[in-house]
Amino acid sequence: MRTSDGTYEPVIALNRLREGTGTSVRVRDVEIALFLRDDTVYAIENLCPHQHIPVLAEGELDGTVLTCPMHGWSFDIRTGKCVHASCRLRKFDVRIEDGQIYIAFPDEEESWW
Ligand code: FES
Question: Could you tell me which of 14, 18, 45, 95 has the fewest CB atoms within 10 Å of its CB?
Answer without folding.
Answer: 18
